[in-house]
Amino acid sequence: MRQPWITDPPSIAIEEVMMQNSTMYSVVSSKLYEQRFERFIIGQAGTLMAVRPALGGVSTRTCKMLEISRGGAAFTVNTTIGLPQHYYLTIVGTKRRIGCAEIYRSDHRIQVHFIKPIDEEFLHQIVRYEFFTGSELKKKH
Predict the structure, then answer these.
(1) Phi, psi angle pair for 130, to nearest 5°
(2) How many CB atoms lie within 10 A of CB 85?
(3) What digits encode the pLDDT tens for the residues 13-30?
(4) Please, what is the Cα angle at 88 between 23 and 36, to 5 degrees?
(5) DSSP state of 103
(6) d(CA 86, CA 46)
(7) How confident is the model at residue 1 (pLDDT cuts 50, 70, 90)?
């Protein structure tokens, strides 16, 4: 088995390690992942839900939201051990599950792209909810 850190210059070894640690969504070019959206700082709690391998059940854990935009979010978790790279995010006060693909993980901080951008109205509900306490978001009729 070839060991890149012995025969290759350090930069090549680092690039190979980075490629191994990347998710599919961070290396595949797509207009969705290149587009930039306005970010909002929020502090709400959230829940991550992931399906275990071989459909062996569902695991959940809590997170604290740091930022959100139409295309992605950043949050912290107590531990990343056992957390896959794809999961659903539910923000407290909402009923929607948002599909996420992880693009960055460092210690307890995680950044994700949403599989499908959320609509502006839903984003603004999340941001406005930051200023309210107690009750759930109410749908406009």
Answers:
(1) -55, -30
(2) 17
(3) 444 444 445 555 455 555
(4) 60
(5) E
(6) 15
(7) very low
Distance CA 64, CA 92 (A): 10
DSSP state, 37? -
HSE-CB at 117 with a 13 A cutoff on CA atoms is 16
Burial status of residue 39 (CB atoms within 10 A of its CB: 0-12, 13-18, 19 or more): middle
At position 83, the amino acid (one-letter code) is L
Backbone torsions φ then ψ of 135, nearest 5 degrees: -85, 160
Report the candidate in 72, 74, 76 with the shortest Cα–Cα distance to residue 113.
72
Q: Is the pTM of this model over 0.85?
A: no
- 83-92: average pLDDT: 92
- In sequence order, what are the beta bridge partners of 47? 62, 90
Residue pair 130/42 in contact by the 8 Å Cβ criterion:
yes
The letter for the amino acid at 44 is Q
The identity of residue 138, as a single letter, is: K
How many CA atoms lie less than 13 Å away from 67 in the CB half-sphere? Answer: 14
Sign (positive or negative) of CA dihedral 99, 68, 66, 131:
negative
